[in-house]
Task: structure prediction
Amino acid sequence: MLKIKNLNYSVEENSMKKDILKDINLTFEDNKLYVITGHNGSGKSTLLKIIMGIVQKSSGQIVLDGEDISNLSITERGRKGICYAFQQPVTFKGLKVKDLLDIAAGQNHNLSQMCDILSKVGLCAKDYINRFLDDKLSGGELKRIELAQALARGGKLNMFDEPEAGIDLWSFENLTSLFDNLKGGITIVVSHQKRILEIADEIILLSDGQVVMQGSGKKMLSLLDDKSCGRLRGN
Ligand SMILES: Nc1ncnc2c1ncn2[C@@H]1O[C@H](COP(=O)(O)OP(=O)(O)OP(=O)(O)O)[C@@H](O)[C@H]1O
Ligand SMILES: [Mg+2]
Result:
């Protein structure tokens, strides 16, 4: 179980304090798929980056299975099974797809194991394992490789930032079964897409750095369906 307690994040901009996340309190249970949604700039990516340790919180606590992980480094959080797939995937100079998956899993994979993982994200291992993780890969290919990395790692907390962005219709057909493969742990997905919201166990709506609504997928979908733009912003 992951608990976010009284989490705040502010930055200084033009000598003024800017509050980006305001008193976030959330509980994420094992074996559930959570989808965080909300308008552009509402703080979704920042929240995931703080959980991963890429951005440092201003105050509050992040507690994973009873342990306060707020002050651990990204590497230490990674060792505890936390994985974050970026909204804009990062490239790694000199690293091949095969290396990334081996590092993620902490073991060497043979071709058939690579095939098993990469086919789940719609990629053929033979075509990709020796490709370098550079900007010659398309945005959609990089997104899929990030998903494959999470599968290889098999961690307890997997976070995906707009996993469907930039990938073709294949993703919608297969993301559900892909998330099923991660069952057992906690899956948190940031998305604006109704088809992703539809597979959520729980939906959390962020607006201007605050949690304005949360609840079961079904209940939240019907609320979000007939809301106006103003209500999405929490007005
Ligand atoms: N270091 C920073 N300095 C100033 N502003 C920042 C900083 N980091 C984030 N922000 C601002 O905080 C807000 C939240 O950003 P964030 O990337 O979390 O939004 P988001 O909900 O993921 O949006 P999107 O749906 O567009 O991806 C934005 O207005 C962003 O410009
Ligand atoms: Mg974002």
